[in-house]
Amino acid sequence: MALQKFSTLTSGGVPVEIENVDTDQIIPARFLKAVERKGFGDNLFRDWRYDNQNNPIAEFPLNNPAYDGEIMFASKNFGCGSSREHAAWSIYDYGFKVVVSSFFADIFKNNALNNGLLPIQVSEVFLAEAFSEIAKNSATTFSVDLPAQSIKIDSTGRTESFTIDGYKKECLLNGYDDVDYLRSIIDTIENFENK
Amino acid sequence: MGKTLFDKIWDAHIVRHLDGGRDVLYIDRHYIHEVTSPVAFLGLKNRGLTIARPNQTTATADHNVPTINQHLPVKDEQSRGQLDTFEANCKENGIEHFGLGHEKNGVVHIIGPELGFTQPGMTIVCGDSHTSTHGAFGAVAFGVGTSEVEMVFASQCIMQPKPKKMKITVNGEMKKGVTSKDVILYIIAEISASGGTGHFIEFTGDTFRAMSMEERMTVCNMSIECGARGGIIAPDQTTFDYVNGRENAPQGEAFSKAVDKWKELYSDDDAIFDTEYLFDASNIEPMITFGTNPGMGIGITTYIPTGTDLEGSDKISFNKSLEYMGFIGGDKMIGKRVDYVFLGSCTNGRIEDFRLFTNAVKGYKKADNIIAWLVPGSKAVAAQIVTEGLDKVLEAAGFEVRQPGCSACLAMNEDKVPTGMYSVSTSNRNFEGRQGPGARTLLAGPLVAAAAAISGTVQDPRALFNL
Asked: What is the complex's ipTM, to 2 decimals?
């Protein structure tokens, strides 16, 4: 499946100021029974968004109408735990294009990149300032520039550069996908097998 | 400069090195299950492709299966749909499928080693983070996402940057009543739930050398719980003896030749690790977790930390965790109420775990307030339980043995712990809601689980069972 291209984005931010968010919180296991990649956004953060009577929990940021945007900000060690790619799917399906944290778990980071969701690792200082700017004004915006590998807090001008694997950057900019690449070198793979 | 064991295996499987640091890595064995494969099968089909190497692919239904009445149709419609889709996908692509009720069915990380598919020196992936289990054999094994499952389907390769290397050495004899689960919970508590991120861990030292293969699997299984991609232990005679004679292992002369190669799988003396830790096994006592990540573990006789030394978001997270658990910092764990006990999962669902639990509870009675789910990791483990008569001992003590599956480890099936209830669980994750919405999980080894099942509370198995 080809990826949607990503280059630059200016958007508001949604703050999830919680550490060690594991993929069981992002999408609980009972929602993993689908055999197609559809509608996972409805169950993103299900047990934090809704109580056991399915009523929205007002305090949870995704339920706060003041927050709007395609960038999620989360505290450190985001996406730890289970390898379920459904976590990246549900965030993307909900409408986020970028997740910003000061630290990502490995498998989640890889899964995000494989699905056109850009994980941006920033410093603790940058993240704290982003949270505080959103707290001051929920309409504050952020600018992400993938070609330049930078992210800016528009209200303060603080800009930080981020790292991304060169190959993955190309994939996102052009909407490539890994399977296409691997199939293109299938002869090399078969030669390796026969070595 | 010498190479680490991990480097030796990884480097031997590089098909191509890409600019930017990724390697196209060849995968020897691909394990698949019903939950993380259907979207990959669909992707493959949409591209007009079929599986590149069905013979290197092993399929089992485990995450989403009931653990009673497996001979009846699966009640939950979505679960049944997922199992049926899985079976149809395997059939269409010529993959051997160990479905529900098959004599070789079981949790993917239990049947792989049992059937001899897992061997030293291999690269192994599965759409499940606990694929790290197979590292116990001196294999490079790790969990991948569904996109990567599709990559392996299409090409038998994935593309990943090589992780950093960490060495964790534990020396000394484990004290009485301490299990390999306690050793890994201790390590995670020491280095934290994110301490291994970006790394692949090699476990070395005489404590691991003295462990059986099943004990080593428990250790490597939980390497992901400190954030590491995987864990690995150099193969030795214990490994070769375990693999010897298993159905899918090399046989006869081929086995001897394989062992000669496997003997070269060790880290060179001058190999460099990015990070190293050293621990003493004599400092480890039976462990239990009090919070909502696997790094929040303490010795069972000690007190819940107060978190007064924490600041900022660390403190907020810590307090949120204790609030969820209904615990107060400074309290002791001994005597805490327990409602459920779960013995099973890819961490502790093997025959040695059932032997430990059964020998401990022999002659006692299950506490009335406890609901116990004893779930063997595979049909083979279930059969062995009967062969050894463990089921009779367990029945006499008021327990029943269920049928294999992942069960209450992730509570995708009906085995859910109700809101607010406490579960002493031999599984691998104590995240909020992991064992059911609102469930409170205390991770521990089989002996602590046995002590909870008999006493109805958290107890030190050494004191309760006079170990």
From this structure: 0.90
